[in-house]
Design brief:
By secondary structure, the protein is an alpha+beta fold. The protein has a five-stranded antiparallel beta sheet with strand order 12-11-10-9-13, with no helix packed on it. Strands 2-5-1-6 form a four-stranded antiparallel beta sheet, covered by helices on one side. A two-stranded antiparallel ribbon has the order 3-4. The longest helix has 14 residues.
C-alpha cells in the first residue's frame, strides 16, 4: 500500500493491464468510481488512442489504434482507498512505478499525448516526388512499376504512369498504394 508519498495532489498515473483489456479496464474503473463514490479522488480514465490511415481491399479507412497497448492512464489523488479501488479493478496488473508507490507522469508527457490523441486527420507521409519510379503495392495494378506524374496532397492521391501493352496509362492511386522503387 502506498503509505509514503500521499501528497493529496492530483496527477496522472499509468496502469498496467492485461493486453486487449484496456477498454474494459477503463469502463470497469469508471463504474467503480461511480459506485464507490470516488469522484473526489479519481477524476479521469483514458485509453490513449490515435487515428491511423490503412488501406483495406483498396479502400482507405481510418482506424483507431492504441498508442500504448497494455496501458491505461488514470488521473487521481493517490490515497490508500483510491489506490485500492484502482488496483483491484479486474484485469489491472498494477501501477507503473517503483515498488508499490505509483509514479506520476509529467504534465509535458500528458500534454504531448493529448495533442497526439487530438489530431483529427492523420497526416499522409509522402516520400516520393514527380518523375520518381514507384512500385504499386495494392489494388489491380499490384507489383507494376510506374512513374509519378501528379501528386494531390489534399486528397492523398497520386497519378502514376504505368506501361500497359507498351502504352503509358495514367492510374490514380492512394498514397498508401505505392512505394518508392
Amino acid at each position: 500500500m502506498p503509505r509514503q508519498q500521499v501528497t493529496g495532489e492530483k496527477h496522472w498515473y499509468v496502469l498496467h493491464t492485461y493486453s486487449g483489456y484496456e477498454d474494459s479496464v477503463a469502463f470497469n474503473l469508471k463504474q467503480r468510481i461511480e459506485s464507490m463514490g470516488m469522484q473526489d479522488k479519481i477524476f479521469d480514465v483514458i485509453v490513449p488512442k490515435e487515428k491511423k490511415i490503412k488501406i483495406r481491399e483498396g479502400k482507405r479507412t481510418t482506424v483507431e489504434e492504441k498508442i500504448f497497448p497494455g496501458y491505461v492512464l488514470v488521473e487521481m489523488i493517490v490515497t490508500d482507498d483510491s489506490w485500492y479501488v484502482v488496483r483491484n479493478t479486474p484485469n489491472v496488473t498494477g501501477f507503473v512505478g517503483s515498488g508499490t508507490v505509483p509514479t506520476p507522469i509529467s504534465e509535458d508527457e500528458i500534454k504531448a499525448l493529448q495533442k497526439r490523441m487530438g489530431v483529427e486527420e492523420p497526416k499522409y507521409k509522402i516520400d516520393f516526388a514527380i518523375n520518381d519510379l514507384v512500385r504499386i503495392t495494392d489494388g489491380p495494378f499490384k507489383d507494376y512499376e510506374g512513374k509519378v506524374s501528379e501528386i494531390d496532397e489534399q486528397k492523398g492521391k497520386v497519378k502514376v504512369l504505368v506501361s500497359i501493352f507498351g502504352r503509358e496509362t495514367p492510374v490514380e492511386l492512394d498514397f498508401l498504394q505505392v512505394k518508392k522503387s
